[in-house]
Amino acid sequence: MIYVVLVIMGWMNIYAAVYNEEHYIITDISQKYGKQMIWIGTAFLLALIILIIDESFYTAFAYFIFGFFILANIAVPFLGREVKGSRSWFRFGDFGIQPAEFMKFAANLALAKFLSNQSIKISDYRNTIISLIIIGVPLLLIKVLQDETGLAIVFVAFIITLYREGLSINYLLLGFLAVILFVMALLVNNMYLFAIIGSLSVVAVLFIKRTPKNLFIVALVGLVACGMVKGTSTVYEHMEPHQKVRIDVLLGRGTVDLKKEGYNVNQAKIAIGSGGFAGKGYLQGTQTKYDFVPEQDTDFIFCTVGEEWGFLGSSLVIILQLVLIIRIVFMSERQRSPFSRIYGYGVASVLFFHLTINVGMTIGLAPVIGIPLPFFSYGGSSLWSFTILLFIFLKLDSHRLQILR
User: The pTM is what?
Assistant: First the structure.
């Protein structure tokens, strides 16, 4: 029921985002809202098919599905069509399919299949490496071959699943520290950071038991940290200008030109802020109506919600999304099958990542990396992928209920 409500609300907001008085009928398939209606209908059909198929299909063919979409993502740069500078779409007339979107549920199936093996323990170093390879391969393919940074970064969300299955918290802490070091390398002079890392290493040596192993670990950590600082600066210098701009805007480095690099986020903030407490009213958003916000029907669809529905409507959307995610977590915990539990956590992780980053980038708290708001943003590939991701889990959960009966 939450899924249906979110999809219908998303459709209404797409209509508001691209509303055209000359084409006001919401079922007009010459407009985006008409096309989205077709995607919604086919998504409901997909959901029905998924619920009809026996649940054992998803466990038996998990690796095959993963391999199929790996091949599809390798093929699309050569056989697909270029859209907005990225060759990551297969086009069929007026409709397009983006294989990278479907890689999310395929990787989730493969990860669940691997980790559900009774002989597999994530605490084992080799199993951790294999799990990271399952996550990392699609990430690299999508980033390197298709240059879709946003869709690639989504796969980082599966770290939450690994943590639930026993991944040491040390890995998460190291990742958190690496992010801090990355940010500091862009904000602080590298020589100062080298001095700080060296000082901390000396302090560590003074307070630990000075065995050869411990001294080696301290030296290794210090060298790796210095390498990350230098590497971050080097990578930043070799980035494309538009990528540098996005990082500078996020970190507040220098003066941001609101007519150029800061335009998207600034207009998004204006749209959301202008909605006030209760919003301007449906189809009454001026920022939306006059196209001040770029990509307002896709990546920045939340701006339409904020402007027309205000704080109340924005809160309702976020609460519904969070209720869905929390519901999935609770359902995952009660699964009798490790495969179903792991897959369920993967669904929750992906949805949470999308929600957090999409809303965050529209209000200037996250970089603009271009990922859709689940069930809201215009596009068939994203709606289909979220639908498949969710309904496979619902089918797996239905098997648990059959066992209980």
Answer: 0.86
